[in-house]
Each structure stands twice: as structure tokens, then as C-alpha cells.
Amino acid sequence: MNKQWKQFADGVKAIYKKDFVPLHEPTFDDKEVEYVTDCVKTGWVSSVGAYVTKFEEELAKFVGVKRAVAVVNGTAALHIALKVAGVEADDEVLMPSLTFIATANAVNYCGAVPHFIDVHKETLGVDPFKLDSYLQQISEIRNGELFNKQTNRRIKAFVPMHTFGHAVHMDELIALAEKYHLEFVEDAAESLGTYYKGKHTGSFGKVNAMSFNGNKILTTGGGGAILTNDETLADYAKHLTTTAKVPHKWEYVHDEIGYNYRMPNINAALGCAQLEKLEHFLVQKKALVRKYEELVVNLEGAALFKGPAHSNGNYWLQTLILDESLNRDEVLGFLNDQGVMSRPIWQPMHELVMFEKCPAMDLGVTNILKKRIVNIPSTPLETNL
Ligand SMILES: *Cc1c(COP(=O)(O)O)cnc(C)c1O
């Protein structure tokens, strides 16, 4: 690697004033200590407690949905979101191959089959234009439901994912959902604080999912949420994620197979403290984009990914797109050796042994992008730049 990359690495370390810069770290202060201590001191650390309700209400307000149901992680949120959206065993669910494993796993937990679609280079998320012409070829509507003519399975839903906090082409996807009679469930795991034309992501689909894992923009340690404007579905999601227990003063009666997916109060306490800082995180993330813009001007063969014009993104993970003149693994090797933690994008789902036989459309853009994407340190800075 040449001098420019050395300067870039030094520049990143200078921004963070560190010799080793992690990819994404949580940021805590006295608030987290105060709220978590409150749980420990009062004994309300587990499955019931006031912080869970507070976190759900404040999150729903921030996102602009009627209800949020807090759960143990984003994968669980996706699982239940898909289930309450009506995905059943042997259905197919359209989803990007270029995503984190959780999206495909959640589809599988429903007994359904992931069906992989390609992404758009402008958003790094699903390409509605390519999907439309693909569905015209391979599917047909029978009695108001979409079927895959090749596999004879029902295609029930699709799951757009807002990659690294950049909103997908939402208007076009909503039009597709209507045209093809599909439900959609947003995987908004990475996009808390991301807006599509002024409306928050995770509020478009019938039911949507979010994650608060330790590396996300806001963390509850581990956690997730199901988001919806449908009160009935929210109540059902809450029921399913709390072992489907029928409320009663002392009896243990459960009316279906449920899941022990509820978020513990101690995690929700952490989340309440983090929500108070979310606006600040978003400002700092954008300040970091401007810093990186200055640093990349001298880098040959690499550009900072800025996302599409329709998206006001949270810039969860900062992204370099390399051109073919550069070898991704050499770039990753160099930056990591320099103490600038960097990671490639996920190996696409269609290449993993569990999913290699799943139906898939042409994944040309995915196959190019998988070799060209490098994520660089993205922790919001604590002090104003
Ligand atoms: C983080 C993430 C999830 C959920 O992950 P959990 O670790 O289960 O909270 C789901 N989808 C995507 C795209 C993610 O990045």
C-alpha cells in the first residue's frame, strides 16, 4: 500500500486521538450508570419493570410508529415481525443476499425459504427496478396471492434492509408490494435515525424490526424491537414474545407456542439512557462523514459512500467503495495492521452452505460489491468536531 493510505490511516487515528481505533464502540456516561444502578438497587433487573415500558414508548415516539415491542435481540424481532406479518412454513420471502445472517435466519425460523434478490449500487439495498422485471418473469398471482411459478411456493413477503443506515428506494418498493400483493417487513436493524424523504425507516412496513446490539448506533447490550402502527399486531407480538401467557393473577396458562424473547429491564434501562443521546450521536456521525470526506480526497481507487439523495442516513457504518484497481484484502490487511479496524461487507447469503440451494435472481451487483466494500471506524465522537 502506498503513502496515501498511510496518510489516511494516520488521519483516522488523529481524528480519534488513538493508536488503535475500533470499528464501532458504544458510548456511555453517568446516565447509563444511574439507570442500570437503579435496576440493581431496586431488584427490577429481569423480565418486568418500568424501563421496558419507557423504552418502548420513547422508541415508538422517535420512530413515529404507534407501538414498539422490545425483545432480546434484532434477530428475534425479525422472526416475530415476519410471523405476525403472516409468513408461514414453506412460503418464500424475498430478501437481499447482501445482508447480515440474521435476516436469512429469521426467515428460516418461520419455516420459510429465503429468495435472494440483487441490490442497487446507489443504496446498497434491494433494487426495486430489477426485482419488478424479475417477478414479472417468475411469478404469477393466483387468488390474490403471489406464487413462484418455478417452485410453486407462495411468495408472501419481502424484507428490504437499509444497509449501513442508508434508506432503500421506498416509494418504488411500496408500489411493488401493491402490484404483487406482498407484505413487507423492514429490516431496520441498522437504521435507527435514518429517514426516507423525511419519514423514519422502520415505519413503512406492516411490521418492522430493529436491533440494539453492542455495535449498533444505540445499544441495550443486546436487544431489538418490533415496530408497527397496527395495535392488534403489536399486542400479538407482545403476547408471542412473552411465552404466549394468558394474563392471570396466579395461573400459568399459555394459549399457543410462544417465545421467551422479552427484553430484560436492565437492558431497557441502558436503552433509555442511550435514547437521550441519540440526536447527539446522529450529529456526530454526520460530522464524521465530513472528516472522512477530507481524508479520502487523496485516496486513489476508493470513494466514501454517501448514500442516495432520498435518504437522510444515520451513517451507522462508514463505507469505502473500492474500484477494481485495488485488492480489498490488501486494503483490509494494511488498515488493520495500522491500528485502523476495518471490515469487509458480509459474505453474501447465497454463498453460505445453508442457503446455497435457495432460489435467487441474477446477483450481478451483489457479486461485484461484495469484493469492493470496506467499513472503517464509525464510533460517534464524544466531543464536537
Ligand atoms: C444487527 C443486525 C440484525 C440483528 O442482529 P442482532 O444481533 O440479533 O440484534 C439484523 N439484520 C441486520 C442487517 C443487522 O445488521
Automatic annotation (TrEMBL):
Coiled coil: none annotated. It comes from the Bacteria. InterPro entries: DegT/StrS_aminotransferase, LegC-like, PyrdxlP-dep_Trfase, PyrdxlP-dep_Trfase_major, PyrdxlP-dep_Trfase_small. SUPFAM superfamilies: PLP-dependent transferases (SSF53383). CDD domains: AHBA_syn. This is Aminotransferase DegT. The keyword Transferase applies. One of its GO terms (molecular function) is transaminase activity. Pfam families: DegT_DnrJ_EryC1. Keywords: Aminotransferase, Pyridoxal phosphate, Transferase. Belongs to the DegT/DnrJ/EryC1 family. It comes from Lysinibacillus contaminans.
